[in-house]
Records
---
Amino acid sequence: MNLVRAILLKVASALLFAVMQALVRWLGDAIPLGQVVFFRSVFAILPVVVIFAWRGELAAAVRTGRPFGQAWRGAISVAGMFLNFAALARLPLVDATAISFAAPLITVAFAAIFLGERVRIYRWSAVGVGFLGVLVTLWSHLEPAHLMAAGSTAATIGATCAMASAFTNAGSVIQTRRLTDTESTSSIVFYFSLICALAGLATWPFGWVAPNFGQLAALVALGVLGGLAHIMLTESYRHAPASVIAPFDYTTMVWAFVLGYALFGEVPTKYVFIGATIIALAGLFVIWRERKLGLRRIREAEGPPTGT
C-alpha cells in the first residue's frame, strides 16, 4: 500500500479527465459528435497499448473469453460517451460534471436490481438524497421561466443528455463488475476503446468535417489525455483500497469549476453549488458506508480473537 502515490494518481486522473471534458466543451458543435468520439477512442488506445506492451500484458489485452459481454459493455459505454459529449457541448462545464456524479448513486440502485446485492436503508437514503441534489442542480435548466426563455433549448437538451449519461455510466459499471469475474482489466479497457472507436467511425458517412489545426490538436489531445487518465485511475487502485481514494473523484468538480471559469467565463448558479454539494455528500456517505461494511466483513471473516 502506498497511500500518497494512490491519492496523487487519483487527483492527476481527475485533472486529466477535467481537461479532456474542457476540450470537448471548447470544440462544441464545430466538430460532429461521432467524429469527437472516434478521436477520443482511437488516440486513447495509444497510451493504453504502450503501457500494456511495456508490462508484457498486450496479449492479455486482446484475449477475451466473453466477446458478447465485452460487446454489451462497449455498447453501453458508446451510448454514455455520445450522451456525455452532447451534454458538454451544451452545458457549462461544472453543471455537466455535477450531474455526472449521480452515476455512483445510480450504480447502488442498479447493483441491487441487476446483481442482487443487498442494499440497506442507509444507502437507499443516500441515493434519495443524491437525486434531490440532482434535481436542485437541474433546476436552473428546467425551471419554467428558463424553459420559456429564448435559446434555452440547447441547455435543456444538454441537461437531459447529462442525466441519461449518468444512467448509462452506471450500467457500464454494473457490466464491468460482471466481466471482472473472468476478464482482465487490460482486455476490458482495450475493447472499450476499440468498440467506441468503431462506433464513432460509423458516423463518418453522416458528415465529418476537416478540422483546423487547433481543432485537430484538441481532438488528438482529448484522446491521449483520456487514455492516460484511465491508466492513472486504474493504477491508483493498485496502491490503496477503493474506499480510501474514491472520495478524491470529487476533485473533478473543483477542476471543472476552475477550467470553466478560466476558459469560458462560466460562473455556476447557486442551484449548481447547492446541488453539487448535496450530491457529493450523498456520494461520500455511500463510500463511507461501503468502507464500514467492508471492515465489518473482514472482522467477521477473521472470527473472534483467540488466546484470551
---
Amino acid sequence: MPRNVALVGFGFAGKTFHAPLIMAESGLKLAAVVSRNPAKVHADLPGMRVEADIAVVLADPAIELVVIATPNDSHAPLAHAAIDAGKAVVVDKPLALTLAEAQAIADHAAERGTLLSVFHNRRWDGDFLTISRLIAEGAIGKVVHFESHFDRFRPQVRDRWRENPGPGSGIWADLGPHLVDQALCLFGLPARIIASIGNLRDGARTDDWAHVVLEYADRRCILHAGMLVAGGSPRFVVHGSEGSLITHGLDPQEVQLAAGLRPGAENWGCADAVLARFDGEGRESASAMMAGDYPRFYAGVAAALDGAPLPVTPAQSLAVMAVMEAAIIAANTGTAQVVPPFR
C-alpha cells in the first residue's frame, strides 16, 4: 500500500515540484495539503483534503510522511513539530536558516528514530547526471577546474519573500544549496571557502549575486548565481588534464512541471542542449545529455520508508549547510573560511 503524505505549503515549490512528483510515485499517496488557501489547492487538485492547521495532519495516524515546502524561516519549527509527532520528514532545501538549526533538526530526528531527508532535486538534472558520468569515466582526465552557474535576467525586483529582506531570503539561500550540493556530490568537502555576495540590482532588498570559490588541494570549484545576465552563460565549465566539458542551458524539468507536464510524458527531462567536449588538441565533439530524473528523489524516499538508504541523507544536508554558512561568513568578513564542524 502507498504511504500517505501530507504536503505543508502550496506556494511555488509545493505546487510545482512536490505535489506532482509525490503523485507520480506509486509508493506514495498525497493525502492532504496544509494551506490557508484551499481554493488555490483545489484549482489544481480537485477533491484534495486541505487543512489550515498542520496540527491536524500531525495528529492523524494515517499520515506517515510530512513534506515541508514553506518559506525557509519556517522549516525548523515545522520539522521539529513533525518529528515530535513521529512522522517521517522531507524538507525543501535549505534544511534550515543556519547550520546550528539544521544540526538540531538532524539530532532530533536521530533521537526519535524518524526518517529525515532534504529535497536536493538538482542532483537529478540531466546535465549534472551527464557531467557526473563523464567525470567518473575519466573523459577529461583529472578535473582541476569546475564552474557551475545559475544565471538569469530578472532586472525587476519582485515583491515576494525570496526577494524581500528577512531570514532565509536572497539568491544564495535560494540557489546556493543546488550549487553546493552538486559540487559536494562530485568532490566532497573543500579545504577552504572564499566568497563575495551582494545586492547589485537597483532597488534590491536582499542578495541577488553570489560568487563562491571552493578550494581543494588540487582543484577549484566556482559557484556563481546572478540576476542580471541577459546574454546567458555556460551552465557548467569543467577543465581537466585531458580536455574540457561545457554545457549551456538549464535542465527542462522545472519548466515542464510548471507547464503541467508530468513524469512519464514524452521527452520528459530531455533537453535540446548538447554538451561540448574538447580534447587536448582543442578538437570538439558533442555528447547528448542524459534525461533528467527528478522522480528518483521520491522513489528513493518511498523505498527508504521500507528500509532502503535515503536518496539524500541528513549528513549530506548538513554538509551543504556548513558550506553555505562558511560562504556567508567569508563574504561578510572578506576572509577565507574552513568548513565548520558538524555531526
---
Amino acid sequence: MDIYLCIAAAGSALLLAAFLYQTVAGWSHRRRYATAGIMIELWSRQRLFVRQEGSGTATVVFEAGIGASSLNWRHVQKAVAAFSGAISYDRAGLGWSGPRRTARTPAIVAAELHELLRRAGVTPPLVLVGHSFGGLVMRRYALLYPDDVAAMVLVDPMRCEDWPPFNPGMQANLKLGVRLCTVAIPIARFGLARLGLSSLICGSGRVAQKLSSIAGENCRYVLRRIKDEVQKLPPEARPELVALWSRSAFYAEMRAYLEAIPAMVTEMRSAPPIQGIPVLVLTPGSAAPLSGEALHRIGDHASQIIAHKSRHWIQFDEPELVIKTIRDMVNAASAEKIPAGL
C-alpha cells in the first residue's frame, strides 16, 4: 500500500509541477510579447490585442486565418507601414486577446472589427486584407460597411464550396480536427504542448518526435505540416508562436472555429457580391484558380492573380507579391481609381 501511495504522491507532484511550469511560462510570455501592442475593450467586454504602425491617406487592415493571429502578418505589416497606416489585431480568444464572448461568424467578427477600428481612432478609407477565413470576414465587412472600404486584397480566401455542408467529404477531416483539439487542451494545460512545440519549432525536434510517437500517426502528420509552414516564419517570430500555441485556450478556440465552419460557409455562400469596390484575389499556384463565376460571386470588380510559387500561406511564400499588391491598392485608394489591369 505504501508503494501505491508513493506512486500516487509522485504522480500528483509531477502534475502540479507541470501545471506550475505552464502557468509561470504563460505569464512570462504574456508580459514579454503582449506589451508590443495595446488592448482595446469592446462593448461586449472582449479585450482585443492591437498593433498599429505607419500613417497615410488610407489604412490597411489585416485579418488573419481561422486559428491564426496578428503574428502571421507581422513581417508584411512592417513593410506596409513604410508607405501606409497599418493595423492588425488578434480576434477574441486568439493571440494575446482576452476570452471570446460571442459566436464566430463572419458577420459578428466583422462587426467587432468595425467597433475596434472606431475605438482605435482608425478612419476611412480602408484597404482590407484577409487571409483564408479572414477573407470571409473582410467580404462581410465590405458588405456591412461599404462606404468605409476603398479596396480589398483576399489572400487565398476560404472557399465555401470546399467545406460542409457543401462538401460532405470534408466532414471527417473536421471531426478529426475537433478531436485533436480536444486532446490537445489538457496536454497544453500541463506544459507538454510547450515542450513539444519548443523542440519542434525552436530546437532539435527530438522531444517533439518522442511525444508524437506516443500520440500516433495523426499527431505526427499534424506536426509535419506545422514544421513545414512554421519554417517560413522569420526566426525571431518563432518563440512567440510557441508561446501562443502552448496555451490550452488556443486549442479550445480552434475547436470552436472548426465546429462553426458549416455555419460560416453557409452564411457567406448566400452573401451577395460586393458592389463597386475593387477586390484582388491572390490564389496560390498549388490550388485551382477561381472561375469567373466564383470571382463574380465575390464582387463585381473582383480579379485574380496567381501566386505561382505559393501554397496556402502566400504571405510567407511570396511576401513581396502580397506587399506589392497592397501597395497598388493603397495607391488606387489614394487616387480614388482602380489600378490598371484590374
---
Amino acid sequence: MTTVLVTGGAGFIGSAVIRHLMNGADYRVVNVDKLTYAGNLESLASISGHSRYSFEQVDICDATEIQRVLAQYQPDIIMHLAAESHVDRSIDGPAEFIHTNIIGTYTLLEQARQYWLTLGEVKKAGFRFHHVSTDEVYGDLEGTDELFTESTPYAPSSPYSASKASSDHLVRAWHRTYGFPTLITNCSNNYGPYHFPEKLIPLVILNALAGKPLPVYGRGHQIRDWLYVEDHARALVLVATTGAIAETYNIGGHNEMQNIEVVKTICQLLEELAPDKPAGVEQYQDLISYVADRAGHDVRYAIDASKIQQELNWTPLETFESGIRKTVQWYLANQAWCEHVLDGSYQQ
C-alpha cells in the first residue's frame, strides 16, 4: 500500500486531497498540519477514524519533528500543500508568509531529501515530492487572449505570490542540484465545499445569508479562472502518482469570470435556493458593496491546462455553473460547519 504524506491536510485543498485519497483502498494517508486558523479537522470528520489515516500536528518549519514523522511513517509520496495563502493577509503581515512558505518549504525539502537518501533502491526509485503552488507566481496577464503556460516567466505581485514563487524555485533547485525527485503544479483559483470564509465565494455566500454587505474590490472586473476543488484534488493525485519527475503541470478550470459575475451568480442561486431572506433584504444583489481595490491587485489570471490534459488525460468534470451550484448547496446544508468556523469553536 502506498503511503502518502500530505502537508497542510487540514486546509481547504489539502482536506479535499485526503478525502479523495481515502475514497479508494490504495493509500495510507498521513496528514501533517500545524493547525493555524485555516486548518480545520472538522473538514476531515468523515475519515478521521479510519485505520489508514493518521494525523500529526506538526509545523513544517520544525526540522526535528519532520524528521521524526518521516522516519515513523516512511512515506512513498509527499504532497506539500502547507502554506499561508491569503493575499490580503500577506499584505498586512508578510513575515509569516516568508517563514512558512519559504523557510518551511526549505525545511521540508531538506528533511525529505535526507530521508530519501536512506531508502532502499526500489523505494528510493519510486519516491516523489509533489509541491503544490499557484498561478499567482506568474503575475498579471496583459491581454484577453493570453494564458499562463508552464514556461511563463515568474512575475509575482504580492508578498504571498512572491513567497510561493520562492518555494517553487527551491523545489526546482533541489532536483537540479541533488537529483531529488520533485514535481510542481500551479493551479488557478479553487472553490467548493469546506472553503475558509475569508475567500471570495464562501464570504459572499455566508454574508448574503446573514444580510451583510458583499464586498467587491474596485468594480469587480478582475478575471480569475475558477477550478472546483474536487477536480483539483483528482489532478493533484494524478500528478503525484503518474506525472513525470522534474515536470511542472498547470491545472485550470477553463472557467474565466469577472469577480462581479461570480458574486451576481451566487446571488441568483441564493434567490432560488434560499428565498427566505434576512429582514430588510429584498434581493441578495442589493447587498453588493464596492470597496477600495487591493494594493497591487492583478487584473487577470488564466491557465493553459493543455499539458496535463494531453500528457495525463485530466480535464475538469465541473463547469462553473455546476460547481458553484454544488458549492452553494453545500454551504446551505452544512450550517454547523460554517458556524463553528465563524465563532472560532472549530479550533477547540
